[in-house]
Write a structure and sequence with these properties.
binds fe (ii) ion, mainly alpha, Hypothetical protein af1432, about 70% helix
């Protein structure tokens, strides 16, 4: 009897020890797992941070390239450096009040400065000519819309595709008398209609080598006359409803 009991006690003891050992091992395993998890969390976080930094870098580079491209186009057409920046802001504002999505507004802000990129392919002798163009010269200058589209249209990037539309359609007029395709009304893409208004507003209000700036009265009168003619009536209404915002942009980015 005694022996049997002893044997049982020994077995229980052995079991207990085994249990303790197993539990210890389990606890160690769990702790090791925790450490591994913490390490991989840290690594994942680091990888995520690196990716985010890279994304920001790419976006910033993209913005810079886009502005530079726009500035190249404008510099060849006797425009000032701030012209494309103001056009970007006006376009954003028009897009926002027109009701385009946040993403589209931000993209148009970046794409609209490229409207005159096609001018890089127009000969200097014509672009830099002081005074007015004759008919032949005008026809050559007007090819910049098609040329801009040709340069940008094959891109797979959404932003560049948008810029291709802007370059192509920023000289179309709402009443169908613009170029290059005499598109009419809403057949003109909203990106083109918006950039057209932003570009003309800025060009009229700025002085250039070949012309002095128009005063506000004259610009507003012309915009009212061109409502539904040159410009989308909805956009003209937005312009006048939010005039203070447009003038604020103009004042904050004056040419020096
Ligand atoms: Fe243009
Ligand atoms: Fe322009």
């Amino acid at each position: 009897m005694q022996t049997h009991e002893n044997k049982l006690i020994a077995e229980i003891k052995a079991l207990k020890e085994e249990f303790i050992n197993t539990t210890d091992k389990l606890i160690k395993d769990v702790k090791r797992q925790d450490k591994i998890m913490a390490r991989s969390d840290k690594r994942q976080k680091q990888e995520y941070d690196e990716l985010m930094a890279l994304k920001i870098e790419i976006e910033e580079t993209q913005k810079e390239v886009v502005f530079t491209m726009g500035a190249i186009g404008e510099s060849r057409s006797k425009e000032t450096g701030n012209h494309v920046k103001r056009v970007a802001q006006y376009s954003y504002l028009l897009a926002k009040h027109y009701g385009l999505s946040d993403k589209e507004c931000k993209m148009l802000e970046q794409a609209s400065p490229m409207h005159d990129i096609g001018k890089i392919a127009i000969p200097d002798a014509i672009l830099n000519k002081p005074g007015r163009f004759n008919d032949e010269e005008r026809a050559i200058v007007e090819t910049h819309a098609q040329l801009g589209y040709d340069i940008l249209q094959y891109s797979k990037r959404e932003l560049i595709k948008m810029a291709a539309i802007v370059a192509y359609e920023h000289h179309e007029k709402y009443n169908g008398t613009g170029y290059p395709n005499k598109l009419k009304g809403e057949d003109i893409h909203i990106y083109g209609r918006i950039t057209a208004l932003a570009d003309v507003f800025d060009a009229l209000g700025s002085s250039r080598v070949y012309k002095s700036a128009w005063d506000d009265e004259r610009i507003f009168k012309m915009f009212k006359e061109e409502r539904g003619e040159h410009f989308d009536p909805v956009l003209i209404d937005i312009f006048f409803d939010h005039l203070d915002e447009f003038l604020h942009i103009r004042d904050s980015m004056k040419d020096i």
